[in-house]
Amino acid sequence: MESEPKSVADLPEWTFDGSSTGQSEGHNSDMLLIPVRMFRDPFLLDPNKLVLCEVLKHTREPAESNHRNKCNKVMEKVKGLQPWFGMEQEYTLLGVDGHPYGWPRLGFPKPQGLYYCSVGADRAFGRDIVDCHYKACLYAGIKITGTNAEVMPSQWEYQVGPCEGIEVADHLWMSRFVLHRVCEDFGVVATLDPKPMVGDWNGAGCHINVSTASMREEEGIEHIEKAIEKLSRRHEEHIRVYDPHGGEDNKRRLTGRHETSSIHDFSAGVANRGASIRIPRQVGQEKCGYFEDRRPAANCDPYAVTCEMAVTCMLDDVHE
What we know:
This protein is α+β, with helices and mostly antiparallel strands.
């Protein structure tokens, strides 16, 4: 561009070859890129930008993979409730050969227990990569708010939010791009597979924390419990959108072991990490705040997840 864009309004629409991505036919291949959010570019640095786009067909209808379009319409409807979301993105670092980063070539590392929030070269594998990702996200203006080593060695987590409405999914989506781009520089791969290692190893999720203004106010626990009741009636519908393959990926992860609930059952409890929905201890004591849905898989589409959450827990409240 001739000058530094100051907002998304300054950015032109663009096109790409959808036939090369399996999104269109070769004889009518152009797909539209519609800028929706702009970030500072932590790789090329200022004044360069990273631009998040929606993909539309030549008819200007959303592409099949574009769940943002519907999500944005739902978030507009519920914005009076001031919905806040925070998402916890877990991922696993692998070598380019698919072997977990830092694991012995033959055999396995020591059993789980040493690694969660750990420090030390014999248990925290890849912290330099994690820190680079964190700094890159901060530079970009992504609302990243924490990071920690996870239960399985070479597994990590970072948190995005709280953000209002569509913003959390936009920021999470760009944070994933930045993660893959940082890993490329280190010659490693970040996988979002919900169960990358079979056996007595934790899977990877993308827990979502949810609240509305009424939940955050005094005695908001009533509204939290109402939302949980609504979620209990639509368990199967949520499982279908909590991974990209209609629940098939999560079947490997949501077994009732390794800090998960069973994919077949809905449950809720205070401070219970084996439940579908966890009410944090402090929320139970203060009688207001937020709740955590622990079911979404690490590879979930955040637009589909936040949209389903708003449809189930909030749309009724708008109409009441």
